[in-house]
Structure formats: C-alpha cells, structure tokens
Amino acid sequence: MVRIKDIIKIITYLCVVMSFSAVMEYLDTYHLVGFLCLSLGAVWFDYRRVVEIPRWLLNGISLVILFLASYRVTPEYLIEPILDTLIILVAIKLLEDKKIRDYMQIYTICMFLLIGSTLISMSITFLFYLSLFLMLATISLILLAYFSHNPEMTITRETLRKVIVQSLLIFLISIPLSLLFFVILPRTAFPFLSFLNKVGYARSGFTDSVSLGQVADIQEDNAVIFRAEMERIEDSKLYWRGVVLDRFDGFKWLSASEIEEDLSLDSMEGQKIGQTIYLEPYGNKYLFALDKPISFSVYRNKYSRTRIYPFKSYIFERIRYRATSKILFNLPQAMIDRSHYLQLPDNFAPKLRELVQSLAPKTSEEEQMKALLRFLQRGGYEYSLENLPVSKSPLEDFLFVNKRGNCEYFASSLAVMLRMAGIPARLIGGYRGGSYNNAGKYYLVTQRNAHVWVEAFLGKHGWVRLDPTPPLLEIPWSRMGSTALLQLRLILDTFNYYWYKVIIEYDFSKQLEILTAVRERINRPDMKLHLDTSSIRNHLAGLGLFIALSLLLYTLIKTHKNREERIVSKFLRKMSAYGYEKEEYEGLEEFINRVDQEDIRNRARIFVEDFEQIYYRDKEFTKETIRRLKDHIVRI
C-alpha cells in the first residue's frame, strides 16, 4: 500500500525539476542558487518536518520578491527577470504544508515557466518538457481527487498502476485532437510576443560596426545563427555574405552607406545555387546568403530585393527566406566612388604606411595586391582568439609586435594596407564554412563560423574577394572537439530543424496553401467518376478484410475477462454441472438461494460470501485469494 500524499509530492517535485531544467540556462546565478537551496529545504521539511513555517510569512516573502522583481523589469529586459521571480516563487510554494490549491498553484507556475522559456528559445526540447509535464500533471490531478476526500488515504500498487495507465490513455487520446486543432485553427502571421525578448536576441550576431576583437567574442558562442537548406558544395565556396563595412576610424569598421551596386550577375558565368535559409532571431537587419547573392524572397513578407542591403526591420523572430546566389570570386561594377573606399583617419599609422611603400612599390594594382596578401600569409602571423591587441594602435601592435590575431585583424590589416597603396578596399562581414547535415540536407552555421574578409576593387575585375586569414584555422568548427561529438550535434539538430520547419513555421499562409491545394484537387476536370469493376472489387475486399479484423478484435476484447470474471465463470460452470443455471437478472446470492440441495447450497455460499468480501470492498484479487476461491469451488 502507498500513500496518495507521497505520490503527489513526488510528482510535484518532478514537475518543478522539469520546469527548472527548461529555464535553468536563462536564470542568473543568485536566483539559481536560491532556488536550489529553497528546494532542498522543502524536501527536508516534507519528509523531516521539525517546524511549521507560517503561511503568512511565506506569503509575505513572496510579495517582497514580486516587489523587488518589478524594479528589474524593463521594456528591453523583460523575460529573464520574470523567469527568475517565478522560479523563486515555486520554490517558496514547495516549503508550505501543501493543500490542493497549493498543488494547483505549483503546476500553474510550472506551466508559466515552460511557456516563458519559449519566448527565448522555441526548440524541440520544449515539446519534450511539455509532454512529460502534462503526463505527470494528469496523474496528479486524478490522485488529487482522492486526496481531497482523505489526505491520508492509501491505495494498492495495482490501483496506482491503473491510475497511471488511465492517465496515459487520456494524454494519448488528446494528441490526435491537438494535432487536428493545430492544423485547422486559424494562425496569425504576426508574432505578437516577439517584442518581449529583443535584447536576448541582440546578444549575438553582427552589428553595423565591427570593432577589433569583437568577432572573437562571437566566435566563442556556439549558438546557431542559421540553417541553409541546399545541396552540398565545396567547402572553399562557403562564404555567407552579410554586411558591407566601408569606413574605418582606426579601431572599428562601419557600414556607413548603402551605395547602389550596378551589377549584372545573371549574365555572368558561374554556378547558380538556391538556398532556403532559416535565420534565427539575432537582433539586427542583415540577411545572409552565399557569396555573391542575386536575389532574396522573404516568406510571409513577400518582400524581394536584388542585393544585400539591410532588411526593412530588425529581426526579432525566426524568419525563412529564399536566396539565389552565383558562386563568383569577383563582383563586377562599372564605377565606384574611389575616395570613399580609400578613406583612412588623418596621419594614421605612419610606420604601417612605410611598410606598404616598401612591400608594394608603384606597379600594377594586381601586383601590389598580391604582394600585400603574400606578406600577411607568409610573414609568420598566427591565428588566435586569445590575447588580442587592444591598445591605442591595435593594427600596428598586431603587425609589428604580437603577430597573433583573429580574422578581423588579418582582414583589417590587408584592407588598410590596400587603401594605403591606393587600391579601394572594404570588409565583408558574414560567416565562413558550416557543417553539412546529410539527414536534413542543410548546412548548420553557428556563431563560431563568424568571419570577415576583404574585397579589393581592381578595375575591370570589379570587387575581388581576398581572405588573408590562415586557412588551417579558418573554420572554427575544428575547435569543437572530436568528429563524433560534431556528428552527435548534427543528429540532434536534425530534430530541431524539422521542428522549426514543420511546426514553428506553420502559419496562416500555409493553411491557405493547403486549403487551395485541396480545392484545386477537388475541382480538377480529370476527377470524374469511373466505375472500374476490378478496382471496386479490390476496395470492397480490403474493406471486408478490415471489418472482419475489427470484429475479431472486438470479440477478443469482449471475451477477455479479468481475474474476477474468470473465477465467477469457473464457479457457474461447476454449478451448471449439478443442473443449476444462473439467470442474467440474478445476483450470486439470489442464484444460490434457489439451490434445493442443502449441502451444495452451503458450500456454494462459502464461495459467494468470500468472493463478495473481496469484490464489493475493492480489495485486490491476488494470487492467494484466487487460489482460495478455487479451493472453495473444488469443494462444492
């Protein structure tokens, strides 16, 4: 026998643990430690209660927590403070001597925690946590019905098993209905809750300016930035173009203007590649595509354009768009404002200018470019994300002292030296490389792939891509660990990919597409009734087989009897052997009362009284009781 109170407590703690696991990474250290301490204290009080904490005191502490949390909440920082507060409130509720309303409040807070986690990251793990929570909560709600009558009630393990099975059946039955409602209920195309966590999205990704050393922080972040659905191509072609940085102030590059590029890429030879890109909300307004992009088409927004320019609004929701690119190493353009791309701060780095004059004397621009690129590639410079130069002259420290830096130091050095040599140059911010997921047929690109490279303008060739970063360390995935770990991550990410693609991206426009497709299918001229005798015969045979199997299954279910039914059947067969048949309207006592043979009636009464003592008092038909009842039948 087990106490219902104990089972409900265990389920409640499991629900709290799941909700905590869903939001743990978003909690600050103080609230996380506070929750753990309060929860451990709650477990101690529940099973070793030595003192009763007054409810008014716990309610007062909860009000103070809410009051303090109100000072942390701002329009820009909203979700995390609320999650911090909710996790402390649920831990305080665990400390109480819990009644039914307390359990209901705990489950409600747990549900709010799960929902709050989706405002930060709507990954497939939410479905896992939600499913477990609903199953456990359903079991607990059924047990609470018993708890409300008698908090100290006990039940058998067999009864508990039946409650669990029934709860799981309720949950399983609800799944088809949930899927039906998901498909047919109208869905808005406007993400009305996306404004709640804008700052959380802006913590990663490129901005309109890139300071020296900034990309290193991004490259330490393993978060996904986008997934690109496409066929696999050579790794050397995986340059994902994002932002053009054309102005340098000595410390950082800025995207200072949106100069119209006179491009005609459609007429140029080159591999044409289409990509369907699922971009994570990252708090800026740039789209990414393979270098060089031809066009974009953003789903739902129906907004297309032909070049990389900032998106019309900051991206605080996950978006899907179609990009078409030509794999080219140069970007032809008839005319540019050369002075704009030769700009440098006044009297900037005279020592570096002397170096450029010695490395690239006045020859052709192409020869000068090759000489400067060769200097960075063969001058003993090393790729590093640690101990980067952050002095008042970071480029000079990198080139003449440290000789260690990441991609932005290499790219900035080359772009500045090109400008000093009179060659227009600019930086391109984006991503380099990615890991191909063979199961989902897409590239997974994370913040570790953040990269900047150089474009130099060489007359008739236009903008030519140059990447001075050492090639062996160019793709930061090599720092992740073993290949096995990478493959494991790709396998797990496949579930997230299809979760986003099928579930999260399902919106009103897709509902209209489904409805239109069904309507067109019904209205097709070729959908006429043709009476094919053989086809009808096959369908009728299949239908008949299905009905026969259904009837057989129904018969088996109806004839399947539990223990008590089987033992009663055995008793009735024994009585039938003496010539006594039980009528359908008779109870067992009525049946034996009309037995005229006294010795048979008395022995039958022993069986009936023993059976009813078990059956009508909701006792369990154990192996021992079944054996005893069978002995009674043998003695009749």
Secondary-structure topology with pairs:
Elements: E1 2-3, H1 4-23, H2 29-47, H3 55-72, H4 79-95, H5 100-118, H6 125-149, E2 154-155, H7 157-184, H8 198-201, E3 209-211, H9 214-219, E4 224-229, E5 239-245, E6 247-248, E7 252-254, E8 271-279, E9 289-290, E10 293-298, E11 303-305, E12 319-327, E13 330-331, H10 338-341, H11 350-359, H12 365-378, E14 382-383, H13 394-402, E15 404-405, H14 407-420, E16 425-432, E17 435-437, E18 442-446, E19 450-458, E20 462-466, H15 483-504, H16 508-522, H17 533-559, H18 563-577, H19 588-593, H20 598-615, H21 623-635
Parallel strand pairs: 14-15
Antiparallel strand pairs: 1-2, 3-7, 4-8, 4-18, 5-9, 5-16, 6-7, 8-12, 10-11, 10-12, 13-20, 16-19, 17-18, 19-20
Helix pairs in contact: 1-4, 1-5, 1-6, 2-4, 3-4, 4-5, 5-6, 6-7, 12-14, 18-21, 20-21
